[in-house]
Description:
The chain is mainly alpha-helical and 61 residues long. The chain has helices spanning 2-10, 14-34, 39-59.
Amino acid sequence: MEMTTAVLLLVPKRTVRLFGAALASVQMVAVLSQTGWNTVAARDLCVLASALALFFLVRSE
């Protein structure tokens, strides 16, 4: 799943990149809902923030 998301982010089409960023965000929400609060969850929260930032950046292009 992560490889598919990465490939979607590399495709030079705006809508495909937007979908890839949204997919990364949804995936991180799913991961965070399954883990307890620890150092790994803190890292995943930062990855979620990065994925959301990428989503809004691509959306504003």
